[in-house]
């Protein structure tokens, strides 16, 4: 009986975590900057890697689509760092730029060789790229073996502007 | 016996021509190219035994080109042939893994000696600088601000210092203009510089570019 109860508690925790990943109410509740702050703190705790969060004041509330897109990019980027990068330090920047919002996630981990990517495309990168393009934005991945990875995404505040 | 193959990298044609003559007696010339980017491509394609390269070159300087090649092939041998008789340059070159550091106003035989040393897996430093280089290494080198930049940032910095606009740099590197802008402002923050002019000055002072 106790085992079943403990099993149920774990299951409910997992479902909660899963639903959070699918639809982060955090984002609707707090807006992108605070949601990123929370996400970075969570990552930092779990992966034991400090994150320097650099949020520049935004001139206005962001359209939901823009927030969701960049939040997902940040989540994916942090997940990649946690999985592969063996980083000691992560830096996340969010700022308004050029009629849009730019998100930059940089780590100092093992990096990868961009020349090899066309042959071994990363699913994470492909999904980030897809997401940004659907929002009318652009994304760059920069890395070299041993030199960390930087992901720079920009999404326009009004779609159709780029 | 096959002669060792040497790749020459120098953006001054007269120098490159002179070097060709100087080296053809002892070595086979694998090719001659004129900048750091071409050096990387040629090294990949021609697989020379030794690369003789200038440091100050357009697009990508010799030091940064060497750093990239080292990532692909840690055994790559590059002998720098430069007009910079400063210890800072020699130190940076050796830190980057250069196999030799020879001055352009040295005796020609010195270059041949440096190439031979490189082929044997040794490192040659111009006698005029060797003493100071070792002294600097022993006393501990000052922290290098330029080393805190990412390879991509150094690349962008070099192109900015050459006077290229963000848009041109973006086109050249196949990245977005906003990515270039981000790096530009981030570098100013990291290095504590106020504007583009100071950034260019920094690039020149640290040998990332030569104007």
Which features would summarize this protein structure in a list?
heterodimer, A: 162 residues, alpha+beta, 5-stranded mixed β-sheet, 5 helices, 5 strands, 48% helix, 22% strand, globular, B: 211 residues, alpha/beta, Rossmann fold, Arc Repressor Mutant, subunit A, 2 domains, 6-stranded parallel β-sheet, 10 helices, 6 strands, 53% helix
How are the strands ordered across the major sheet of chain A? 1-2-3-5-4
Tally of DSSP β-strands of chain A? 5
* Reported CATH architecture of the largest domain in chain B: 3-Layer(aba) Sandwich
Q: Kindly report the CATH topology of the largest domain in chain B.
A: Rossmann fold
Average pLDDT of chain B: 87
Give the N-terminus to C-terminus distance of chain B in angstroms: 43 Å
| Strand/helix succession of chain B | EHEHEHEHEHEHHHHH
Alpha-beta classification of chain A: alpha+beta
Number of helices of chain B: 10
Shape of chain A: globular
Give the biggest sheet of chain A.
5 strands, mixed
**Straight-line distance between termini of chain A:** 59 Å
Write down the secondary-structure element order of chain A: HHHEHEEHEE
Instruction: Determine the strand fraction of chain A and express it as a percent band.
Output: 15-25%
Structural class of chain B: alpha/beta
Q: Biggest interface, and residues per chain?
A: A-B, 20 and 12 residues
Spatial ordering of strands, largest sheet of chain B: 2-1-3-4-5-6
What's the number of structural domains of chain B? 2
Superfamily (CATH H level) name of the largest domain in chain B: Response regulator
Low-confidence stretches of chain A: none
Mean pLDDT of chain A: 86
């Amino acid at each position: 009986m106790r085992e079943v109860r403990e099993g149920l508690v774990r299951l409910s925790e997992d479902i909660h975590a899963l639903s959070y990943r699918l639809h982060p109410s955090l984002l609707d509740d707090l807006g992108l900057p605070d949601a990123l702050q929370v996400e970075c703190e969570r990552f930092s705790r779990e992966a034991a890697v400090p994150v320097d969060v650099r949020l520049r004041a935004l001139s206005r509330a962001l359209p939901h689509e823009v927030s969701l897109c960049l939040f997902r990019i940040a989540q994916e980027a942090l997940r990649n760092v946690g999985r592969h990068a063996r980083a000691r330090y992560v830096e996340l920047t969010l700022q308004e730029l050029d009629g849009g919002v730019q998100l930059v996630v940089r780590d100092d981990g093992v990096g990868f060789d961009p020349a090899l990517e066309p042959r071994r495309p990363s699913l994470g990168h492909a999904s980030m790229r897809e997401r940004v393009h659907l929002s009318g934005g652009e994304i760059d991945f920069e890395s070299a073996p041993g030199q960390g990875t930087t992901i720079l995404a920009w999404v326009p505040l009004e779609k159709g502007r780029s | 016996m096959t002669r060792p193959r040497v790749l020459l990298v120098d953006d001054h044609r007269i120098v490159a021509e002179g070097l060709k003559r100087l080296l053809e007696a002892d070595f086979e010339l694998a090719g001659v190219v004129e900048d750091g980017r071409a050096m990387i491509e040629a090294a990949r394609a021609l697989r020379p035994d030794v690369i003789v390269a200038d440091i100050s070159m357009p697009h990508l300087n010799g030091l940064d080109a060497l750093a990239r090649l080292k990532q692909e092939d840690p055994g790559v041998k590059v002998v720098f042939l430069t007009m910079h008789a400063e210890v800072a340059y020699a130190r940076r070159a050796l830190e980057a893994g250069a196999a030799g550091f020879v001055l352009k106003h040295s005796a020609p035989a010195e270059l041949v000696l440096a190439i031979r040393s490189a082929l044997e897996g040794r490192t040659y430093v111009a006698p005029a600088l060797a003493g100071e280089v070792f002294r600097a290494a022993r006393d501990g080198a000052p922290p290098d601000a330029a080393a805190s930049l990412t390879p991509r940032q150094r690349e962008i910095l070099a192109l900015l210092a050459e006077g290229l606009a963000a848009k041109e740099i973006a086109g050249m590197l196949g990245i977005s203009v906003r990515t270039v802008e981000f790096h530009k402002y981030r570098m100013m923050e990291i290095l504590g510089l106020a504007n583009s002019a100071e950034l260019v000055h920094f690039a020149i002072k640290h040998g990332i570019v030569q104007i």
